[in-house]
Amino acid sequence: MFNKRWIFFIPVILGIVVIVLLKQNSSAPQQKPAQETTKAVRTLILPQLSVTPMAIGYGTVRPVSTWEAIAQVEGIILEKHPDLAKGSIIQKDSVLFQIDPVDYELNITQIEADILATQAQMEELDIKLKNTQASLAIEKKSLELTKNELKRLKNLLKKSSVSHSDFEAQERNMLAQQQSVLSQSNSLKLIPSQKALLDAQLQQKQSQLKRAQRDLQNTKIIMPFTGRISSNNAEVAQYVRIGNTLTAADALDKAEIEVQIPIGYFRGLLQSDKKINLTEHSEKEIHSALGIKAQVVLKEGSLRTVWDAKFSRITDTLDPKTRTIGVIVEVDNPYSSVTPGSKPPLIKGFFVEVHLHGTARENSLIVPRSALHNQQLYLVNEQNRLAIKKVHIELFQPEFAIIRNLKQDSSKPISAGDQIVVSDLVPAIEGMLLAPQEDKETTEHLISRVKGVH
Questions:
Q1: Same CATH fold, 54-62+253-357 and 43-50+362-450?
Q2: Less CB within 10 Å around the terminal CB: N or C of the chain?
Q3: Cα dihedral sign, 361-362-365-366
Q4: Under 8 Å CB-to-CB from 93, ≥6 apart: which residues?
Q5: Cα(265)–Cα(305) distance, rounded to whole angstroms?
Q6: Vertex 370, ends 366 and 371: CA angle to 5°?
Q7: Cβ distance 385 to 331 under 8 Å?
Q8: Does domain 54-62+253-357 sit in CATH 1.10.3630.10?
Q9: pTM surpassing 0.90?
Q10: 3-state class of 9 per DSSP?
């Protein structure tokens, strides 16, 4: 009887037989040669252009000069300029306020009277000086005669030709005359000190007169420049005290804007072979040596207005957190050449852009910042293979960079006309085969940015 256990092994044996037969009848697989994969990339032709370095900052317009009218005298305001109100433009030398001057005019009159009295005393003293000098001369002459007479009587007394009483009387006359000469001499010595006292009093009165005249002038508050009123705190019939702020104004001759510029961008603006001593050279000489030009741009909706500006100065501190430096530019006559609807005045408080331009750098190699990979460039060589070159970044701008070859690099230098890979290439393997396709749109955008077309 057939053993049922063999039924399980029959399919297995048949499978082995089929595999052996297939293996004997099959031919060896054909080997195909390995093909290199080509990577499609976008490229641009490396341009060589003249580049004017630029940095952009943002800030708020403020006047260069401001002024506050602070009362230097007290009194009631009698008059006020009819146009004096916040926002009004007042011309230079206009009288803004008139404080009651009567008390100050009376004070001047009193001091002038005191000066006349002191001058009269000085004239009287001059006359007294002359009279005393004349009297002293007479008294001295009289003393000389008295001495001669006493000498004559003394000789007669020896001859018993005159009495002792006559001699003694003449002697008393001589002593009295000496006393008179001494008294006149003392009076004459006192006159210089009396005159010095009157001189001091006169100078004091004259100083008081100048102060009183200045106080009288200060009763008129006069506009020191043509400006725009920023505040008004006084009215007619109001009593003001010394130190009260009556009004404030902003000058219209210049406006300034302070902006923060990254140090790297600002460094790119500075290009000069001259050595500058900031403590010795004038501001104009420093500006000329640095060669920085500036523009102020206002953008409000569809409105775009540009003012020519000048680089004024650098602030005294560096912001350690943002690594920026403060730059201040000035605009002359910000209220001139106003065109309603298209060019407004450069008003205090406008938030504007400040464009700083350095000296042009000729024949510069320009690449998009996106084409840089850790100071390396991806190039397409003559065999359409990837070449990776390390370069020196000479200047960064917001969307592009100026590069130059490394001095120690002995390989073929990068030059204008080379193909630069601008698309992402991951992984980037030196020598890999590429299928370059020039990206003209990126090239045109790069050139427009370099030329400053926005």
A1: no
A2: N
A3: positive
A4: 222, 223
A5: 24
A6: 60
A7: no
A8: no
A9: no
A10: helix
The domain segmentation of the chain, as residue ranges, is: 43-50+362-450, 54-62+253-357, 67-93+226-251, 103-217
Question: What single-letter amino acid sits at 414?
Answer: I
CATH of the domain spanning 43-50+362-450, picked from 2.30.130.10, 3.40.50.150, 3.30.499.10, 2.40.420.20? 2.40.420.20
- 8 pLDDT tier (thresholds 50, 70, 90): low
Q: Cα 226 to chain center, whole Å?
A: 21
Going 252 to 253 to 258 to 259, the CA torsion angle's sign is positive
pLDDT in tens, 386-400: 999 999 888 888 888
Residue 388 · residue 430 · CB < 8 Å:
yes
pLDDT of residue 22: 64
**Taking a C-beta distance cutoff of 8 angstroms, is the pair 257, 123 a contact?**
no
Q: How far is CA 56 from CA 343, 360, 451, 452, in A?
A: 21, 16, 15, 12
Contact yes or no for 42/442 (Cβ under 8 A): yes
